[in-house]
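Database export, one record per block. Field names are fixed; values are copied verbatim from the stored entry.
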Amino acid sequence: MTPQLIRVSDDAHLWTDRYTANLVAGEIFAVQEQIANQVAGALDVTLLEPERRRLAAKPTDNQEAYEYYLRGNDYWLYGTDDPGDLRIAIQMYQRAVDLDPDFALAYARLSRLHSIMWFFFYDRTQERLAMAREAVDQALRLDPDLPEAHESLGAYHYHGHLDYDRALAEFAIAQRSQPNSGDLFAATGFVQRRQGKFVEALANLKQAAELDPRSTFGADEVAETYALLRNPVEAGRYYDRAIHLAPEWASAYAEKAEWVHLRLEGSTERARAVLEEARRVGLAAHPQIAYAWTLLEMWDGDYQQALDRLAMVSSEVILESQFLYVPRAQLYAQIHGLMGNRHLERTYYDSTRSMLEAGIQQLPDDERYRSALGIAYAGLGRKEEAIREGELAVQLLPMSKEAWRGAYRVEDLARIYTMVGEYDAAIDQLEALLAVPSPTAVPMLRIDPTWNPLRDHPRFQALLEKYGN
């Protein structure tokens, strides 16, 4: 093995050496420990006792179980974007613990994936949440001091119950033995964002990105936080870093186009350049890219082109994330409404209504469904029902409970109020969003046709003036 020490800023090779060892089946961890100690000695680094214990720790005696664990890590490589990959990762971790029921580290990772499946709406069942708790409890029974187990328990409290205090307490326990863990700095930042502590979150997420400078997701998380703080320059810089690290990853292009150039700058021209870059690497048909491109064309006033972009998506739902649930029919309805095609507008809103009413039968507390259904009712002229659904969505997830996702519900409520003619109520919601870090920004309000009915309202004009500097 040839370990190297490389300065990230300029790729300068500061140190390298070569180590040779005879690898005997089942002794890979002993070799890892030996080489790590030799490297530490060569660099004149003093390892503290917790670090020495971690180097000497053997997560499993079963080589096959460890291989499945590593496969699980590989399938988790792209974070939370692909539920298919996450399900395969879960299968790999489950196979690892089946082969070695004492494999605490694999149980910890298994718990993390179950929690993620719940939080990102890939499987919003109580059974999934119970599996997350069962796996982390098993990890802690096997190894009460395992930092990854405490990290997973923190993730369970955060993802499963929005219990931020208990989550942060578990992350702090893990950090005692892993003071330089980028994952733990990031986890703390994630929770702080949901608490509305965006400046504190940014500091932790930047530290995580510095500790793992080759992490696409680390760069992306910093970019998202800068965008919420309405800093398009720094957000754009970190999105560029994410794109450079993983040119095939659609999310960074879509977020840079929508959040930086459309929402924060109001520039359809710059957004188009980013999406063209995504097209050149084969991502034009990706749902996130198609959604951003549809918004761009719609906000640019080219409604036929918006319809053409939307036609590239075959799925009934063009965007489904922890923040938004956007049926394709909803966008068709909005575009046809802007074009004056009232019959088609109503037809598509009714299709959206039918889909969402069925979804709410299965998940009545899904605040995304409630917001989207409120928009559909508003499009159909069902004013009271529209307001009821929009307000219920905010009640289910207020910003005081979840500052980031809650902001989307408030923006949707403002949209519903605008659609049904309650303009002062809509402006009240927008003002609440502009007063704090949120995805809502003045340049977006200036060009998004959603807000056309407010254009001549004196309070709306005063709002843009107040927050537009």
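Remark 1: The chain is about 70% helix and 5% strand.
Remark 2: Strands lie at 4-7, 12-16, 317-320, 325-327.
End of record.
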